[in-house]
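Journal club prep, notes for RB
We'll compare a predicted complex against what the paper describes. Inputs for the magnesium ion case:
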Amino acid sequence: MNTTPSPAYEAVIGLEIHAELLTRSKMFCSCPVLDVTEAAPNSAVCPVCAGMPGTLPVINARAVDFALRVALALDCEVKQTSIFARKNYFYPDLPKGYQISQYEQPLARNGRLTFRTDRGERTVRIRRVHLEEDTGKSTHISPAESDEAGENDAHSLIDLNRAGIPLLEIVTEPDLHTPEEVGAYARALRQLLQYLGVNTGDMQKGVLRIEPNISVRLSGSTELGTRTEVKNLNSFRALERAVAYEIERQIGVIQAGGKISQETVGWDEAEQVTVMQRGKEEAHDYRYFPEPDLPPLVINPEWLETVRNALPEIPFRRFKRFQSEYGLTEYDAEVLTASREVADLFEKTVALAKNVEPKVVANWITGEYFGLLNQRGAALSDSEIGAQSLAKLLELIEAGTINQASARRVLTGMFETGRAPQDLVDEYGLRQVSDSEVIGAWVREVLAESQDKVDEIAAGKTALTNWLFGQVMRRAGGKADPKVVQEQLGSQLQDIIKKG
Ligand code: ADP
Ligand code: ZN
Ligand code: MG
């Protein structure tokens, strides 16, 4: 029997993430930044982003502003002077023959991001944040597809709408160790970019592309193993699967006595495997050199301070504060800080609603309101219900003007008509009845009509009380104060049973 335990391996992962910046115009020209999945091909192209000789790039200040937001939110050191460089390579969707990027002197370095995983908090170090421009997009048409379109041969289509869109590259240190951690980090970064208003986070549109670098080593070792890099993943699922696959594949190779070779691989979504694209020998020599057409990018301290002062609270801190300040559970705090929009709605509602506990606001937003939106397939941004009207609705419940069930109806009405809750309460005639005389009379009527049930309750089937409660509420058109109904029902039943 083989008694040697198989050695334990540890995975080491670092991520490069490319995020398109939500500026109005491109990085070095005034072409608009369009939704490239929808716009007509090549409808936003000029001589600069088409790479015509003799044109000159101009740095988009707003792109720098956005990059600074991210750098500061990631606790980076921002370089006062950074340099754009030419990264030279040939590809049909790169008409200039080079991409303008930052290389030796990036905008920012040495940051960190703290995020949550199922196994607790983690902090990953950020190696660098730099600005560059996106490339165009090629679409390859196979011979079969060409035939169908009545064209001759296989060919490729080039759309330059994306060429020159500002891209931010965010690179971590190799601090991550599991597919789950990698996924959690990527999600946290996406959420941060959305909070900062610099990226839509719309992964399906390719505005966020992730490239994990993966190696494995014996547990306890501090040396880095040889890594592979998976290109251009644009879903968290693909990211987690590709990382898990690579870890297993590499361990398998090593256990079989083989060696990992440094290579770039792609993720085959259909087969759920990675496939080799190029090895180290074929690695590009990009022949970087400083871009002669652009001056060094100088960030003066005032600019940096202006950006710093305008930064929103980052999601992780807001998540913590929602628990400490409002006494919310981790779960509620997580749901309510998932987006800045929701977090703002919650805090504004809490501030406006008099005598309403934050927990009640949280329940109504995450429960009833989100339930309603879900049911209608609507997003928060589609709804006209704001903090003001939500606060009013909750005050009406708190004051006993309407009960919970009526409030749900009113909320639906608010969503459908955009009208104020007070108006709807009157229009629907939902004002709650709390008068114990009126409710007492309804209870008496129901009990008189339900003698059989009363007898069963007297015989011990107390669960039937709920049925009676429902009958009284029905008689009240749903408007009775449930507490008073319970009281009346309890005392009248007791009287009957005593007498019986
Ligand atoms: P390149 O630009 O050539 O891809 P970098 O040195 O910038 O290389 O590293 C890219 C990413 O790879 C970084 O996120 C880094 O943390 C990660 N990385 C570097 N070496 C390793 C390794 N041996 N194992 C896992 N990740 C690594
Ligand atoms: Zn242009
Ligand atoms: Mg790389």
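Talking point for the session: Residues 349 and 387 are 5 Å apart (CA to CA).
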